[in-house]
Structures are given as structure tokens and as C-alpha cells.
Amino acid sequence: MTDQAESSQRADTAGWIPLAIGLSAVILLWDLLELPQILSFAPFAFGDPGSNLTISYLVSHGYRPVVDFGYHYGLLAILANMAWFRAVPLTPVGYQAACIACQLGVACGIARIAKALAFRPLQLIFLFVAIGRAVWPTYWNFAHGLEAVLICFAVAEQARGARANALALTTAAVFAKPSMGFVYSALLLTLMALDLYRRRIEIPAAWLNQIKLAAMVGISLCAILGIVFGFDVLWQTVLPISGMAAYRAVNMGFFTGTGSNFWHFAGVNWHYYAGTMIGMWAVATLYLIWGAIPAAGRLWENPGTKSDSTDMRRDEIVFSCALLHLAFIFLFYGSGGSWMYYSYLLIAGAATVPIDRPLHRHALCAIIVIAAGTYYGLVKDSVSAWRSTNRTPVTANLWSSAQVQDDWSRVLALSKGRRAVVLHSEGAVEILYPEFERPTGTYFLEGLMRAPEIQREVARIESADVIVLPTTL
Fold this sequence. Notes:
mainly alpha; two-stranded antiparallel sheet; two-stranded parallel sheet; 4 strands; disordered N terminus
């Protein structure tokens, strides 16, 4: 790359920090509004967010993922979790702080995309309205948050024309969560190959220059994660083996699996489509595909030598986000709430669609109005949570209703001085309450359980004086 091109790329992202601060401020305001739901008792005691605490506890006590307990994400997420919880307490607040760090990372990545592609005021307005839907209030697993940051920054690097940097980031994303990183890496390699082909460059050194940074990242992470966790564990987590098995076991999927509850379920009416995320998600998906079709045509017609222009890079990002979004729908969509997995790609892609024509501007204005309407239910539920729940030591200083607090007061009284075991499929109730026997596994779910953790759980149950079986939360 010439010095002039490098200087141009640096200029493309100059001034992104104020935009990132603005987007981050909006995210933090939404977090504050949702605080009683974010730090609610049930998700940490018996849900996915709490499982992050249990995983950290098990790993710190010598248990190995995949071998000793079920785990279907990447080892890089566990390594980052281990490092994080050396600096902060192993508590729900500590994990939420990690989620906020990921949220702000996504905001920075999107801000860099906007600056690199010179977003217009209307596109920036859309970002500020929709940014609350581009991040999760609490990531179900730290792997989701880490992957989101890595892929967002990869898109930002691609938007600058630095595909080699983007490939290095998508390579790292594979080790955080073995799914979208593979598809994105394949897309980048294809774009690199087409670029070299159209410029009639067949020198091996040119290929090596494109992939050497990604190769260094991949080799380094393989070495580090293999040494820390074992190479037998590494190969099982760097490939989507466990995740695919879990998806099949519980019938996940967008069209016919449990994910179809997102777009259709018994008793659904037009209010659901107009006032929830499905409305914006569907319209933004159509808008992104609408913009991606002509963008793909322009990319095909123009030679790679013109890829330094803002227009070409904009077309490449629109096409890439659309392709990745469709890959998510067809390959990676899980349960009904899985729309959140890659919503940042949908929002960044829709914001990037050129609005030179009046029809595109009018369409984006409509999406902005629809996006604003999706927050009605969120605001209503948040206000209700502030009024009906409160924090108390009985529920580990997490927000809960008076009924839950009464129930757990009785549970703690009955468990005092006895060997008490709580039966649950996921969560960190044993981390929250030292009165209970320590956890021996993570996800007691079909497709994820491992024989050793089942045996340990059976032994734990047999040795218990009191068994707690939660029925309502």
C-alpha cells in the first residue's frame, strides 16, 4: 500500500471519537432505563448471563470446557472472561461491566464505519435512533459481545479499504464464536482474490501480503489457547461442532425451528409487527437487500483498481452486510430472541445504503419512525420494572419482585446449616449464594450436557440434605 493510500485511509476515520461518544451516551441511557431488568435476579440465577459466572468458576477450579462441561462457544471468550474477572469481582455487576465494555466497543466500530464512509445527517440520525437495538443490554454469553466488537471493527477496517486488517479481526472472531467469523473471512478472501485477479496480479508475494496478518493472528491464538486449555479442546471449539449439535437437539432455526416464534406465533396480530423489533428488523432487512442488489452489480462491473473510492467501499460494505445478514438468517439463527445476535450488522448495513435518490431517503425516514416505535414496549416494561421490583440481599442484591423475595427467604431459611443443592439447567445461583453446594456443570440442556458433569451432578444430588427445585421466577 502506498503512503498516499495509507494517509487517505487515516483521513477517512478522522473525527470518529465524538460520534462514538454520542452513540455510547445513548446506549448508556438505555442501559440506565433498563437497569432493573438488566440486573434482575432470574437471568443471573437461572439464565444464560449467570452461566458466564459459572463457567469462570469451573475453569478457575480446573474443569475443562467441552471435556468436563458443556460449552459451544470459542475459547477466546473464556480467556477474556478469565482475564476480566481477575480485575473485577465474579459478580453480576462485574459481568454487566464486561457487557457495557462490549456495547461501547460496538459503538466505536459503528462510528468508525460512519466516518470512513462519510455518512450523511439522515444516516447518522438513523444510527442514533437504532443504536439501542444494535447492542444487547446483557449479552447471553461473553462470546456474543466479544464477537460483536471484533466483527464491527472488521467492518470498519473493510470500510477503510484495509481488508487485510479486517481479515485478521474476523480470524480472531472465529476463536471467540465459531460461526460468523468463518463466513466473513471467506467473503474477505473472495474479495481479495477478485481484486488481485482484476488487476492481473498473480504474484504469490501479493497474496502473502494480504493474508500474513490474519495468519499471524490465527497461529498465535492457536498456540495460546492450545497451551492454556489443551489442543484437544481447541479443535473442538474452533469448529462449530457443539453448537450445531445443540441447535439440532432443540430444533433451532429461523424458518421452521423455535426461531420462527420471532416472526409468527399463535395469536399474533398487527400490533406485534408495528410495535416491536420484528417490524424494524423486517423492513430494514428488505431495505438492506434492496440496496445490496445494485451495489453488487456495481462491484462486479468496476475493476479492483477503483476500490479506494468512497463509493466503491460503500457498495462493498452494503453488499457484505447484506450477505452476512442472510447467512445469519439461513445458517445461525437460533431461538426467537436470536435477532439480537447480529443486529449490529443489519443496522450498520442499512445505514450505509446510499440515499442519493429521494425514494431511498423517504424509505430511510420511514425506517427511522418504525425504529423509534420499537422502543415503546421496552420503555413500558422498564417503567413497570422500576415500580414493581427492588434490590434486596435476599436475592443477592439483584432486582426482583416481592413474591420472589418471599420465596427465597423461605428457601434460605430451610437450607441454613444443611447440604443444599439447587437443580437448574443454567445460571449461577450457587455463585450468588455460598449456602448452596458449589456448581459442577454449566448447561444441563439437551445437546450440551457431558457425561462427566452428569455424573458429578448425580453425586451432588445424592449427597444433598435439601434439594431446591425452582418453579417460578
